[in-house]
Amino acid sequence: MPIFPFLFLTATLLSGSAIAYFVGGATIVGFFSLDQTRYLAALPQRAMSQLDVFAFLAMPLFILTGELMNRGGVTEALIRFSLSMLGRFKGGMAHVNILTSVFFAGISGSATADAAALGNTLVPEMERQGYSRDYAAAITAASSIIGPIIPPSIILIFYGALLNTSVVALFAAGVVPGLLLAAVLMAVNAFMAHRYDHPGGKGSEIPPFWGSLVQALPALSLPVIILSGILFGVMTPAEAAGVASLAALAVGMFYGRLTLRDVQEALSRTVMLSGAVFIILVAVATFGYLTSVEQLPRKLAEMIGDVGLDATGYMIVLNLIFLAAGMVMDVKAAVALLGPLLIPPAIALGVDPVHMGILIGFNLTVGLLTPPLGGVLLILSTVVDIGYWRLVRACLPFLVVELILLGVLIYVPAISLTLPRYLGLIN
What are the C-alpha distances in Å from 307 to residues 210, 300, 310, 350? Predict the structure, then answer.
């Protein structure tokens, strides 16, 4: 009976098993309960064909780039450069926090990696300057989700490979929304700084601009290499990721902070994270095979037509689903599991797949900032040693404006699509 996969899924979820095991196991049970076991003979070939996508090659290389940069002393150089530009403003150190997240976004593409790195460095420094720990942790959490929006983004690589959408176009589409998110957060921080008299402004100790720029140039070169190489067609995302990982190694050696042991640890963690991701992809490919056998996308599209949802109505429902998924699921698993099932009906209703990819990425990353299981909140509450719900309360103003911005992105597709259209990446 069809209820058996759901019972198996519930049992494995409650047992604390990894997502790959409960998704894959429940899908196999589904084949048996739906009397579709004759299709299992083709499952290995089907699953491996889902992984044989050139875009996936970029993912482990971008993970390696982020690992090398986090260990190579880049954080201090970027913070000092950001402080030289923004330290003279009220609430300047919080502005620095946001700008550093923008720089990191062009390197790692991971919200959780940025939150962990900046939580260890910026939050103690903000406390030393007179910010409350609550506010310092909250602004770090809110700005860290810029990472998966501004390219390179592992979420967008996932989406592009699974939904057969140009990763280059997705990268171009993420630039303006990511910068707009940073601008909105800076506006909120400026309001908070004047209302609660945060540190900064006249009399603040500010590093010299040109000296800090020279020190930060090697780190700043990485986003330029990645973005210009991809957006102007010089390199594919995979080639850009390879060049970026070599450049990250060179930058770490330039700063004198990257040891052989650091490189070994970065490689080891990259292998571990990549393996975990590809196991999830195999499980999700198994689930996708079952949905195609049962023709679930077609049935879902028919159900949408019967209910009478137009493109806007379905988009709102879809965004709520992905926002909820981001609260409790790994973002890559959420894209892989829900994307192939729920997004084709939206495209059939006329939604641009590139625009849809940006919305999905934004949704899932906002979910990382949302209880009950927001991943960024969990990481920062541990790194910064602050109560989880205390951090949730401090993040609420930033979460509200990010949800408002999400609504704007839904109703104004041009924000996402203008740049890729200008570059000739989409029609």
Answer: 61, 11, 9, 17
